[in-house]
Write a structure and sequence with these properties.
7-stranded mixed beta sheet, 6-stranded antiparallel beta sheet
């Protein structure tokens, strides 16, 4: 076989790629700054993908793939990088996707998060959700938040529950316990229930993927813990609706009341290709819970949350659309990205037109002078 797993992973690290794809009938493919590139070389045969897969997985994981059609694992590539790997069957053959987990954690400033988010890390209790589509950098943002708590808070025992563990944290000022689903504990919900008996101050739940986990996370936030979690939603209003709608209709009013008090913030993020140089830039919508937003959640008026975010700058809130416009004005992202990613495209188009008109007027004034 012409490819070795260590050569391919080395290529991912040296090219700064986010993902490696391995499929039968195609050469290996890497994703760099959001774009797929084929590795030079012959297409892989079924036995090649199986050999590559066996070089990084245990018999237990291979058994899982055979029984359930897939397995997720995390592993370290020497000291160079960690990878989150999904192994699966497609058309009877093995396929692999390995995502590189950056080893260096970023500061809030490097990620581009406003200072209002830092204040959330010192709250004694409540629920903070980081949301966005797959690959939008949620795990990186959360790992960086946990790292700041770890460095700065002596009063904190942090428990992380992940599937698989992505970032390995060491004990700094805080004490940190990291539990992996299917390795250390059978499920997210079970890990959360047990966490409450382990004297935690801060709990990170990798993903609020089912009703049981959501229930346990809300209960933990209510009983005096600061709980961080992720959801694959975009925008604060959709996030609240997604949680409420996961519950039976008879419980929804109760959940709204609970969320209106325990929810501290919803941070939605997207990664957008830069137009000034290779790379991507993060854009955010930030909702901080206020008495007014709490009332909207309680009264099932989430559709009005966006207007509260627009007027909530003094609380550190920001809308996704204003964040997009700001990055566009800084020359970091292209105009079409602003239009396609905006939550309210018609208003954004008007604002872009205003910017163009203002530019044209300034240019004309300069010519006259």
């Amino acid at each position: 076989m012409s490819y070795s797993m260590s050569d391919l992973l080395q290529l991912v690290v040296s090219e700064g790629a986010s993902d490696l794809h391995i499929r039968v009938n195609a050469p290996p493919v890497i994703r760099v700054h959001g774009v797929l590139h084929r590795v030079e070389g012959p297409p892989l045969k079924a036995e090649d993908t199986e050999e590559l897969m066996r070089s990084i997985t245990s018999e237990d994981h291979i058994q899982q793939v055979r029984e359930r059609g897939g397995a997720d694992l995390g592993f370290a590539f020497g000291d160079m990088a960690r990878f989150r790997v999904s192994v699966f069957k497609e058309k009877g053959n093995f396929g692999i996707v390995a995502r590189q987990i950056p080893s260096k954690l970023l500061t809030m400033e490097q990620i581009g998060l406003p200072p209002s988010v830092r204040e959330l890390l010192y709250k004694p209790r409540g629920l903070v959700l980081v949301t966005g589509p797959t690959g939008s950098g949620k795990s990186t943002t959360l790992a960086s938040m946990i790292d700041i708590i770890n460095i700065e808070r002596e009063d904190a025992h942090i428990i992380t529950i992940e599937d698989p563990i992505e970032y390995y944290h060491t004990h700094k000022k805080a004490l940190i316990t990291q539990r992996e689903v299917n390795v250390d504990v059978p499920s997210f919900a079970e890990a959360l229930r047990r966490a409450l008996r382990q004297d935690p101050d801060v709990i990170l739940v990798g993903e609020l993927r089912d009703l049981e986990t959501m229930e346990a996370a809300i209960a933990a936030a209510e009983t005096g813990h600061l709980v961080f979690g992720t959801l694959h939603t975009t925008g604060a209003a959709k996030t609240i609706d997604r949680i409420v709608n996961a519950f039976p209709v008879t419980q929804q009013e109760q959940i709204r009341i609970q969320l209106s008090t325990v929810m501290q913030a919803v941070i939605s993020q997207l990664l957008i290709p830069r137009c000034d140089k290779p790379g991507r830039v993060a854009v955010f919508e930030i909702m901080i819970n206020t008495p007014s937003i709490g009332a909207l959640i309680r009264d099932n008026k989430t559709f009005r949350i966006n207007s509260d975010i627009q007027t909530g700058a003094k609380y550190g809130m920001v809308t996704l659309d204003s964040f997009l416009l700001e990055k566009y004005q800084m020359g970091l992202i292209a105009q079409e990205e602003v239009i396609t990613k905006a939550q309210d495209p018609s208003t954004i188009l008007l604002k872009l037109q205003e910017l163009e008109d203002a530019k044209a007027a300034a240019a004309a004034a300069q010519q006259q002078s």
